[in-house]
Amino acid sequence: MKCQGVRRMLPCQPTPNLFSCPTPSRVLCFVVGLVVGLLAAANPMAANAQSASLVFTTATGALAGIAAPGSIAQSGFDEEIALKGRMNAGPVRASALISASLSSGYAALARWYGSSSTQTMRFSWPGWTKGALAPDVLAVIEIQELALAVSAGHLRFEAGKFPLKWGVGKASRPSDIFRTMDYTSLIPVSKNLPAVRFSIFPSSMSRIEALASIDGDSTITAGARYFTSISMESSANSRLTGALSGGASSSSLASDVGSLALSAGWRRKQGSADEFAGSFELQVDAGPFVPYTEFSARTTDSTAYALAMLGTSLAISDLSLTMEAQTALGQSSAGTQLFFLGTWKASDLTSISFPVFWLADAHILAASSIAQFQGILGGRLDFSATASWIFAGSPASFLWKIGAYWTRSLSTY
Fold it and tell me: Whole-model pTM above 0.85?
């Protein structure tokens, strides 16, 4: 059953919450409630560990540009408010992030074309449909995060909509079988998904997790991942200590020198063959120079391919650089991805960034500049400019966008 508008969508896809469940999910909700109850009983709440925070954020912006090939330049305004809350009560942790926005003109166009059918807990007026023309005015309400976590000793159980970050890449993550990367922003970010996750912490430096998620297309993904930090003990001032004490004693320090992760996953999308993946992640912290890599071997029906990514970050004084390259091996529709990000911290209140992206499969080259100024009228002022070249057709299309946003956060408690 297809729902076109928000009013028709609500009966078909009820908004999940922590206290009610649709009929087909009662068994799952019973299992989730049972696990949460057992973990909470195993480790009762400590009243003196309770803490909470509530932050209210507003963002006011003006945008102008060309959003699609063949269209004319437009301008528009954008207003967004967000409410973010967190609560820790002993072994129980709850978090929520809800936003509402009202956009017009180019801003509405940008939000409309940035939407997709994979999004969850997002409602818009008018209702978003693939291929439909963008409205002049768009209102959106989105539950970006709504999660509950319960811990007991070395165990943790989480349920709701929360971040699922697999991989060490900043823009390219072959290990991320959940497809959480969002490339509609100037600098790619990881989006949240409805999921359940069970984690075991064998030590303070390692974690084993098993989780399952579902997106707006009813694509089900499940997987397991082992992550560990790599540390090395070193002697500090051993000769000096020995000389002062008259002995050979030395002080040993443990420092992290990197991380390692192994994962395996399964993905089922309606109308497509099941996909299986096994992945490897490695990061080495060598002072200001941090190289990292990912490799993911995947199979879909009778097709096998692999994704490989190599990246590095470098920090020198107030300048930081990040470079990544991802390529596909075998029978894959994914093309080469190149990402570069340079950031200069001009002062404690000012920073300038230059992200550059190349997507070979979409034939898109995008370059941006972002300037952020803290402490402007009690908030932060952002200026951005983006130029994109699309080489899919002949002649190539050129898109551009400029914008300014003023963001202010107010912590209520």
Answer: no
Q: Hey, is 142 helix, strand or coil?
A: strand
CA distances from 293 to 25, 38, 242, 259, 316 (A): 39, 39, 41, 11, 21
Most confident of 6-10, 128-132, 230-234, 325-329: 325-329
Q: Which residues contact 243 (CB under 8 A, 6 or more apart)?
A: none
User: 3 pLDDT band (50/70/90 cuts)?
Assistant: very low
Quick check: helix, strand or coil at residue 339? strand
Contact 236, 249 (CB under 8 A): no
CA 26 to centroid of chain Cα atoms? 29
H or E stretch covering 234: strand 220-236
Q: For the chain, how many helices (H) and strands (E)?
A: 4, 21
188-240 pLDDT per residue, tens = 888 899 999 999 999 999 999 999 999 999 999 999 999 999 886 554 444 43
Looking up tokens 């539950």, which residue turns up?
143
- What is d(CA 282, CA 178) in angstroms, rounded to the nearest whole number? 19
C-alpha closest to that of 40 among 94, 92, 95, 93: 92
**How far from 263 is each of 185, 278, 284, CA to CA, in Å?**
27, 6, 18
